[in-house]
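Lab notebook page, bench 4
Experiment: in silico fold of construct C2
Operator: M.H.
Input chain length: 154 residues
Purpose: comparison with the prior construct
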Amino acid sequence: MSAVEEKIAALGLKLPEVVPPLAAYQPAVTSGGYVYTSGQLPMVDGALAAAGKVGAEVTPDRAKALAATCALNALAAVKSVAGDLDRIVRVVKVTGFVASAPDFTGQPAVVNGASELLGEILGDKGVHARSAVGVAVLPLDAPVEVEIQVELDR
């Protein structure tokens, strides 16, 4: 088990299986020394963990936890192409999409779920640039979707 996976386990979490694509794309691809993940939904054991709009059917706190699930799924996607999460030099960018009720403006706090988990797991290597974007709807009516870009050692 890699040091990163040991840290995940120490947090009481488990690296999930890679979520199969919902359409014509790959969960992650490499280019040069980087891995780019596709958007990851809060899937747990093959099912969407929650559905609906944040600020309406889904509370912001629940959405924040779901964003952390998305980040864990993204790390699984990274491992699927990198082979070993210990190859991560740093998380470069996180983009979070939040399916938002019309009056909801707390997207950054929701995406903190992903950012904070990456920091807990990777320490300084988890510090990243980020965008948190409110959207009308996401695939499967998911409340949140997260994609990450990481740099790997060569």
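Observations: Strands lie at 28-31, 34-37, 43-44, 47-48, 88-99, 129-135, 144-152. The chain has three helices and seven strands.
Next step: discuss at group meeting.
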